[in-house]
Design brief:
- By secondary structure, the protein is mostly helical.
- The chain contains 4 helices and 2 strands; from the N terminus they run H-H-H-H-E-E.
- The protein is elongated.
- It starts with a helix and ends in a 14-residue tail after the last strand.
- About 5% of the residues have low confidence.
Length: about 170
């Protein structure tokens, strides 16, 4: 059991380090989205994807170790979150302290990551809405017949003859 807990702690440490690398990238991404720098966005997204791939591999390993811990403890691995494991380690204060500190640290990092990603999601959605608005505006100007010129009675007159210009001498 001790070797399984050591492996779990090591895996969680690796996962934490990757999330710590991912956090500044997500925060930097916010600045890049605001600037609208597509080249830098592409570069930082590639770095982000690389780290996500690494964390997915480590996450699978963590799930496997947790499954093995569940077998040893005769518990369902789905019920073995870090808080539960800390409670089960009452007799081992060093391991309990490590797992509690990792839990708190991971919780804090994940909250910050979620906040940064939510902000980035909103910025992307706003950009997409602006693009859609611009596309609709362009389509509507191309589809309107002739030019929209208004006469004194505020009715639209279509066609190429402008008639009275913007400066009406009679006014």
């Amino acid at each position: 059991m001790a070797s399984l807990m050591e492996e779990l702690l090591q895996t969680l440490e690796e996962e934490k380090k990757i999330y710590e690398e991912l956090l500044p990238i997500s925060e930097r991404k916010t600045v890049i989205l605001v600037k609208g720098d597509l080249k830098e966005l592409e570069s930082i997204t590639a770095k982000e994807q690389f780290l996500i791939d690494k964390v997915n591999i480590i996450d699978k390993r963590r799930e496997e170790v947790t499954k093995n811990v569940g077998v040893v403890l005769n518990r369902d691995p789905k019920e073995l979150d870090l808080s539960t494991l800390a409670k089960l380690l009452e007799g081992q204060p060093d391991e309990k302290k490590k797992i509690t500190m990792l839990h708190d640290s991971l919780k804090d990092i994940m909250k910050r990551l979620v906040d940064a990603n939510e902000k980035n999601k909103e910025l992307i959605e706003n950009s997409l809405e602006m693009i859609e608005f611009n596309m609709n505006f362009i389509k509507s100007t191309r589809m309107s017949p002739g030019s929209n010129n208004y006469n004194r009675n505020a009715s639209s007159s279509y066609g190429s003859d402008v008639g009275v210009t913007a400066f009406d001498a009679k006014q």
